[in-house]
Amino acid sequence: MATDSDASASSSSESTSRSVEAANEIRARIANGDLKPGERAPEAKLAESLRISRNTLREAFKSLSQEGLLTQIPNKGTYVAVPSISTIIDVYRVRRLVEVQAVAQAIPRHPAIARMRAAFESAIDARDRDEWPDVATANIAFHRAIFELTDSPRLSQLHERLATELRLAFGLIADPEYLHAPFVERNREILELLEAGQADEAAARLEEYLLLAERILLAGYERIR
């Protein structure tokens, strides 16, 4: 026979599960650009759309605040975080450490290379339609596939965190074409070198690419501060 304590534990576990699910959905909305940096996270609207209670939503907010994706201001509300210069620099430092080595050590014909190809082709299609936010999404998928070259679930999870932080930074730049246009053909170059088995050369080009991407993002960021 179930006891009151069993019922309480079950209820607590269910509430925790729902708050985790809510945090995942809000994180995805930030990553997709639906919630932009500096924008207020509307508590009532989010609770309704996620079909959860305000208390469960606040637990999700607390978790995302600890991740640095939300900022909770007493008596004002919860806002999508605005990344700092140091955050952007650190994100790119981690990306260079992981992605360059992942490409340099890539196993020939790794399935992730096919995913890189698919993401690149999506970027070309989006560029031809002049849909630059879609180019950004395809570019993130391209780099997710690079992380997947490592065959490490932990590093793949790390990419999801970095991708969300990058989306916050991308959201600060008014002109997405300025930000993303230089990298579509660079992705092609890295991909074709990797497909040809020239992993070391692909890795060298990727390191140059990431340094340039960081510089462009920081320059754009400085212009709006």
| Main sheet properties | 2 strands, antiparallel
In terms of DSSP E residues, the strand content is under 5%
What is the CATH superfamily of the largest domain? GntR ligand-binding domain-like
Low-confidence stretches: 4-11
- Give the helices and strands as they follow along the chain: HHHEEHHHHHH
CATH class of the largest domain, please?
Mainly Alpha
Q: Within the CATH hierarchy, at the fold level, what is the topology of the largest domain? A: Four Helix Bundle (Hemerythrin (Met), subunit A)
Mind telling me the C-alpha Rg? Answer: 20 Å
Q: List the domain count as a whole number.
A: 2
Question: Which second-level CATH architecture of the largest domain applies?
Answer: Up-down Bundle
Please report the number of helical segments: 9
Distance between the termini: 62 Å
Indicate the overall shape.
Answer: globular
- The average pLDDT is 88
Tally of DSSP β-strands = 2
Strands ordered across the widest β-sheet = 1-2
Secondary-structure content class: mainly alpha
The percent range for helix content is over 70%
